[in-house]
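Structure tokens please, single chain.
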Amino acid sequence: MRATAKPARTAVLSTEESAVLRDRLLNEITALRSQDSATIWARQALPLKNQLNEADANLVGQAFEKKIFEVVTSETAAAISDDSSASVTGSSNLAFQEAAPAANAAAQHQHQYRTIDKSVLTVSAPRRYRNKEHLRFVSQQPCLLCARKPSDAHHLGFVQPRALGRKPSDEFTVPLCRIHHRALHRSRDERAW
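Here you go.
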């Protein structure tokens, strides 16, 4: 029987040692000026942060998040002001005033978890729309083959590209009675059926 190697747990420092290391890490955080330097620092400091007691580790983590937000905001503001000052001649103060709210919004938007609208990409992916009321409407229609009611809303699989575990959009549904719906799924070849 093989023994699996467990990773060695890092020892937590004493309260005094943890406070000294915390202060050193906080001073290093205040010196960070770019996203790249913050990334390099984080890779080097993570093993040290894991040695801190919980309260000190939380303080370091919060300070790092705050610094990252400031760096991203300032870099975004600089990029936007560079673009706007290059295109607009004259009052650079006006360009900065317009760029500051946009930079804050961009930085806040960047920190939130969001989805990408893949339909606007160069190689777009089709959107899969969901609409319960449309499915309910399709279910109230008679079966396309035998005109029985009630019917199920069947999603036509061949109209959109396949996606892992995703049905086609609800707009591509047809009414089929339960008998024909099951027969269609059993046939495995929807287009020929």
